[in-house]
Amino acid sequence: MAIALSTLVQEADRFLNAARIADYCPNGLQVEGRPQVRRIVSGVTASQALLDAAVEAEADVVLVHHGYFWKGEDARVTGMKRRRLQTLLGHDISLLAYHLPLDLHPEVGNNVQLARQLEITVEGPLDPENPKVVGLLGSLAEPMTARDFARRVQEVLGREPLLVEGTGMVRRIGWCTGGGQGYIDDAIAAGVDLFLTGEASEQTFHSARENGLSFIAAGHHATERYGVQALGDYLARRFAIEHLFIDCPNPV
């Protein structure tokens, strides 16, 4: 079965409430391909490796979290950018990308989906007074040590996380997938036992250590694999089309 590209895009935009979320890039259809869609290939980032895999899989649409045309980037179509766009346009494949709308969504969002993977009960936003803070706040069913929770993260995500061990047991957790290390101060203010994100900055270690907070950096790519899969599955069910998630390994 096939669905019109325009119908697919309209539903994804509506479902994610994309038009109402300010972002650093255009959300939705970034490159237009053939007008009918039978197969979606999803992945975290629209890298050349993912595009080549999508061509091999005979995809009509590539659906990603990290697309193109970021604010402040060089607008010239040269080098890597030229090759990527040439692959999409040469094979008539559309690129559909959602950044913050996919982080924030309460059903298929990266943060909610990561919580399900790690068995964290979502309680609400990390900072209810500041909607610009993308992270969430939640809890574990039973307290555990930071090392035991880090082992759970490693088992689920398939990579060893960076752990800064705090002073106590872990039950209340704040988290933000991807590059959310800047929200550690919000996590401290929320009184969590552990803050989890994808990346770490030099000062993150000192903030965690001096506040007695446990901190885990589990990988930008690794923490953001699940939202785009959930969105792809939703669209596939909604329109009775095919969806294939392709994970292109990234250690960062």
UniProtKB/TrEMBL annotation:
UniProt key word Metal-binding: yes
Positions contributing to a divalent metal cation binding: H65, H66, D103, H220, E224
Gene3D superfamilies assigned to the protein according to its UniProt record, in alphabetical order: NIF3 (NGG1p interacting factor 3)-like (3.40.1390.30)
Keyword Metal-binding: yes
TM stretches of this protein: none
Pfam families in UniProt: DUF34_NIF3 (PF01784)
Entry protein name: GTP cyclohydrolase 1 type 2 homolog
